Amino acid sequence: MFDILVAGEINPDLILSGEVEPAFGQIEKLIDNANLTVGSSSVIFACGAARLGLKVAFVGKCGNDTFGQFMLDEMQKNNIDTSHVIKVNKGTTGLSVILNRGVDRAILTFPGLISALQADEITDDLLGQARHLHVASYFLQTSLAANLPGLFSRARSLGLSTSLDTNYDPTEQWSGFDALLAVTNVFLPNEKEACSLTATGEAQAAADMLQEKVETLAIKMGAKGALSVKAGQRIQVPSLPVKVVDTVGAGDSFDAGFLYGYLNDWPLEKMLRLGAVCGALSTQKAGGQAGQPTLSEAQKYL
């Protein structure tokens, strides 16, 4: 029995850190550091949830290549069940190259197999082994997104709760969400994503519109903290002041903390605070996964 089944994309991140801006014309610039780390919103979330003590299984696709094996090895080191990951022999694992400036970053992504997972490859038998289904990177997982409302409906009929973190829409269309949100228990956008989805200018206004569509809403607002609405109750908590090294994966770590509280029936404010703490602590080390706290480490800040 798994606490969470994650249906997601698999790709490492190559993080290049330094106060530089790339320039064409064969201009070479030096950076401060380079790290090949666990990437993909879904895998970073899965690592964070497992780090907190949840039992996590992962279903997705990767190539039978160096990057794919790297990701599988790292997931297994983080106590994630990868027995349902599908290896595609002639496929290529995706890769994100991130130019990191501490609180800001630019990202170039080679999709590879990121978009390849399909809803009908997630069987009822697999769903039946979990309490909760989480999906991230909605706009990158295009094959899965096409039938995600049906998958979420199927999961809920089997007794699972569901959660969604859209991440950014590279096309900036932000359309087609009403049917999906109707079968989503927990919706986890950041402020920019929430405002883009609702054509509003700030998180409070976005929350006013989104709270009618989902059971539980949590909007991540970076240094401004986080906002959550459930059953008419609205809570906002501040961020934890930390020395930021790298913000990659902070939102995914927030999701892990928030869903830990949700799955353990915590009060709304407590689950929101755990999410904010997990997100903040994850920024103190390079990469999305290295700084993620255990539950006991996070509880010191609650």
Describe the 3D structure.
The protein has 302 residues and is of the alpha/beta class. The protein has a domain of 210 residues: UDP-N-acetylmuramoyl-L-alanine:D-glutamate ligase (3-Layer(aba) Sandwich), CATH 3.40.1190.20. Helix content is 31%, strand content 23%.
What labels would you give this structure?
302 residues; alpha/beta; UDP-N-acetylmuramoyl-L-alanine:D-glutamate ligase; nine-stranded mixed beta sheet; four-stranded mixed beta sheet; 11 helices; 23% strand
Can you summarize this structure?
The protein is α/β, with parallel strands linked by helices and 302 residues long. It has 11 helices and 15 strands.
